[in-house]
Design goal:
13 strands, elongated, about 250 residues, five-stranded mixed β-sheet, about 25% helix, alpha+beta
Length: about 250
């Protein structure tokens, strides 16, 4: 029944029931639509081919091209990602472009990267993925924003490390960056502080998306409220079809 048929010539009780039925159907449709939201969102804009500049290594070429470099190091100093990831829109997208499979706990708190650890800890053990950012010639800074909301700076470095339980935090190692034939040094750092690991070539993966439970809950509340209203009107309405109370 279209809304245009709910005219003034209808009996008030019938018109009320028709509106209630229409609202119930709309609420159910909204709830079903929310439940069908896909659990995984794919990044459409994948990383560009790695740039190359004379006199620069892979990191330096990436930063000179105003793209973002990703470094992910686990608790055993294993390099999970060390590559240029283009111009991602968020820290999460940078990880996905670098082939890092991420898992969440407590909303969008990243608890595991590519199976490190294998399972998200059931309780906090003191270890966690530390999110840092930096640039050529500067030290890393701990991000005060989550990976879902922070937008990586073009020409910058996204760096992650996983601290041991006995440590409060960790700092990713400095990368050896060559630009225009010279190594870019961080003030106060020694040559031994830098690493030059092999560049990874991980294929981009999907960015996980959390299910919108808040929206689904709102839709469910609407449906329940409409059904209760419909039940109440039918229960309290007159059985003879006359307008008025009992």
């Amino acid at each position: 029944m279209s809304t245009s048929t709910l005219g003034a010539d209808m009996h008030p009780a019938s018109r009320s029931g028709a509106w209630s039925a229409l609202l119930a159907r709309m609420g159910l449709a909204i709830l079903l639509a929310l439940m069908l939201v896909p659990a995984v969102a794919h990044a459409d804009d994948l990383a560009e081919p790695p740039p190359s500049s004379p006199g620069a290594n892979a990191v330096g070429s990436c930063l000179l091209a105003n793209q973002v470099w990703l470094l992910v190091v686990d608790v055993d100093d294993e390099i999970l990602a060390n590559q240029c990831v283009g111009t991602p829109a968020s820290g999460e997208e940078a990880l996905a472009r670098g082939g890092i499979q991420i898992r969440f706990s407590g909303g969008r708190l990243i608890c595991s990267m590519s199976g490190h650890p294998e399972q998200c800890p059931a309780t906090f053990t003191g270890s966690y993925w530390n999110y840092n950012f930096g640039a050529a010639g500067t030290s890393y800074a701990f991000s005060q924003e989550g990976a879902s909301s922070r937008r990586p700076v073009p020409g910058g470095i996204e760096a992650w490390c996983y601290n041991a339980p006995e440590e409060k935090t960790c700092t990713p190692p400095l990368l050896r960056i060559l630009s225009k034939g010279q190594q870019i040094m961080v003030p106060g750092a020694d040559a031994s502080d830098y690493i030059d690991p092999p560049v990874t070539a991980n294929e981009p993966v999907a960015v996980p998306a959390t299910t919108p439970w808040a929206l689904i809950g709102t839709g469910a509340v609407i449906v329940v409220a409409v059904l209760v209203l419909l039940w109440w009107r039918r229960r309290s309405g007159p059985s003879t079809g006359q307008v008025g109370g009992r």
